Amino acid sequence: MEKTTEPISQQVETYLPSIYSLTLEQLQAWMVEQGEKPFRAVQVYEWLYEKRVTSFAEMTNLPKSLREKLTEQFTITTLKTLVQQTSKDGTMKFLFELHDGYSIETVLMRHDYGNSICVTTQVGCRIGCTFCASTLGGLKRHLEAGEIVAQVVKVQKALDEQNERVDSIVVMGIGEPFDNYGELIKFLKIINHPKGLHIGARHITVSTSGIIPKIYQFAEEGMQINFAISLHAPTTELRTKLMPINKAYPLPKLMEAVRYYIEKTGRRVTFEYGLFGGVNDQIEHAEQLADLLKGLKCHVNLIPVNYVPERNYVRTPREQIFAFERALKKHGINVTIRREQGHDIDAACGQLRAKERKEETR
Predict the structure, then answer these.
(1) For the Radical SAM core domain, which residue ranges apply (predicted)?
(2) Is 116 annotated as a binding-site member?
(3) Of 60, 64, 147, residue with least CA distance to 98
């Protein structure tokens, strides 16, 4: 597990790898190495993802010797809930503490079509988008796949009490998913697997700010995962002001990668476009955006931004949002306005962590 800074506290002397980080195939290979039958891996998966136990001792259909081996070599990652906020609309936001004292955010959103979880892939972020609270304090470390999986398990256990389930996943929380690519792919395989959390690929969405080499790599994965680009500007100059990553991966090159992805996979791409008052929300910007996306198999998701105290951006007026939408539709662009959720809590990504854990985001 890569770390970029020292942990803020060391709560355990020796950290064991998370059992949640193993795909079924990896766990089967481990079983064979231990002289066990591969079917034992399926049994472990059932205990982890169907019964959602928190200790290997509870896996009573495994031999005692195997349970001891598992306990010696792995941990079942548990997350400590530091803060849990519930919005009037049912949105729940969690601030979880990791084994080394760092914290991450996870959000449960309730829709007409089911429950969706937004997961985090890094502690902090190095991308530096000027409108985002997640990047305050920079990147502390990557999460391992098991720590991402644990977020889903933790929220699912809360839903178990209400006889509900997680229906979909969006990988749009703190961090840049493609900056932690290997662990991201393992996470996706684990939650998608029928013996894992069994969340359908078409109910999983991954978003990137535009790490171009990984877009090409993702196109080759053969996954039916939904794919989104955090765009937020229709021109190179404006995007560079909002998103410094545009200096490394300029908009024209990004669009080439998107075209390759669409051609390779045949899948539609969603462009996330946050509207910032007086910055990127004028009709001329909508016209430029329509021109940029002309002919692409895509969808635009307009996002009325949440106010972040540490940033200077303000919300676009309601009528201006609708005018922007109409301008895109006039050019045949498939567009929707994201329904606001959690507006009465710390809804902006990274905002709860910034407020509660100032030592991490300073």
Answers:
(1) 111-344
(2) no
(3) 147
Q: What angle do CA 263, 264, 266 make, to 5 degrees?
A: 65
Active site (annotated) includes residue 298: no
Q: Give the whole-angstrom CA distance, residue 47 versus residue 54.
A: 9
Binding residue per annotation — 21?
no
pTM of the complete model: 0.91
> Which of the pair, 136 or 139, is modelled with greater confidence?
139
Mode of pairing for the β-strands spanning 92-97 and 80-86: antiparallel
254 labelled ligand-binding: no
* From 183, 349, 356, 360, active-site residue: 349
Domains and CATH numbers, the chain: 23-73 (1.10.150.530), 80-361 (3.20.20.70)
Q: What is the pLDDT of residues 226-252, one digit of tens each?
A: 999 999 999 999 999 999 999 999 999
> Is 272 a catalytic site residue?
no
More confident residue, 246 or 130: 246
What residue type is 259 in one-letter code?
R
**Would you state the pLDDT for residue 6?**
46
Identify the helix (H) or strand (E) that includes residue 248. Answer: helix 245-248
- Distance CA(239)–CA(248), nearest Å, equals 12
- Decide the pairing of beta strands 103-111 and 122-124: unpaired
Is 306 annotated to bind a ligand? Reply is yes
Residue 298 assigned ligand-binding role: no
> What 3-state DSSP class applies to 14?
coil
Summarised one tens digit per residue, pLDDT across range 284-331 is 999 999 999 999 999 999 998 866 666 678 889 999 999 999 999 999
**HSE-up of residue 230 (Cα within 13 Å, Cβ side):** 27
- Give dist(CA 340, CA 143) in Å, integer: 28
Classify burial at 354, counting beta carbons within 10 Å of its beta carbon; exposed 0-12, middle 13-18, buried 19 or more. buried
Q: Residues 99, 50, 183, 267: what is their CA dihedral angle, to the nearest 10 degrees?
A: -140
Rg (CA), the chain: 21
